[in-house]
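Lab notebook: predicted structure, single chain.

Context: the supervisor wants predicted structures on file for every construct in the current expression panel, including those that have not yet been purified. This is the next one on the list. No modifications to the sequence; it matches the entry in the shared construct table.
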Amino acid sequence: MSKEVSENVIEVKDVTKKFRLFYDKPTTLKERLVFWNKKKTETRNVLENINLNIKKGETVALIGTNGSGKSTLLKLMTKIIYPTTGKVITHGKLTSLLELGAGFHPDFTGRENIYFNASIFGLTKDEIEKRINDIIEFSELGEFIDSPVRTYSSGMYMRLAFSVAINVDAEILLIDEILAVGDQHFQDKCFNKLQELKDSDKTIVIVTHSLEQVKKLCTRAIWIYNGKVNMDSSPDTVINEYIKICG
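Prediction complete. Output recorded below exactly as produced.
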C-alpha cells in the first residue's frame, strides 16, 4: 500500500446510491380506474459515481443546495446506509452527529442516555464514569440532566448529543448541520471545540450551509451538485464558484 493511501481515513470508491420512491396507492374507485396502469414507484439516483479520499487531520466541508446528496454521502460514511454500487472504507474510530436525538431513548434521562450512547461508541462503563462530569459540564444541562430527554428542546438535544460525541475519543467526527440548532453561545462553544479537535489532528467532515463557518474551520470544501462532485478544492476557491452559480 502506498503512503498516500495509508494516510486516507475515508475512501469513497465509485459510489452510486439509488433510492426507490413509493407513491400513494389509489384508494377510490375513480383513482383505480384512472391510474391502474401507472407506476407506483420511481428509482432516483441521489449520488452517482462518487470518488474521493479524505486524509487524516483534514477538516472537510460538504456543501451544496438542498437535495444535492451531501447528507446522503455523510450517512454512507457512517454506514447508516450503504451504497447501491461501490464502497466506502473508513479507517479509525468514528462518531457522528447526524440527526438530533438519534440514538436517544425518550424515556431515559439525559444521564442515562449518556451511558447508553457512549457505550454504543465503544466506551466501557468505567471509561464513561471518568468522563461523565466533563460531558455534563460541557452540555450545560445542569438540573435537566436527570430529566427524561422527551422533555428536552431541540437545543438541549444538540447540547447532549454534541457533548457525548466529542468525549468518546473518536478519530473521525461526522457532523450534519447540527450546529445550526441552539443558542448562539452554545454554537460558538461547539465551534471552538471543533477548532480544538481540528488542531489535535482529528478528521472532521461537516455538512453545513454556513459558508462563513466553512471558511473559518475547514481546510477543504467539496461541492456536491446533482449527486456528483462538482468541485473539490480549498474553501475559498469552492465557495467563490458556488456563490457564482447558487448565490
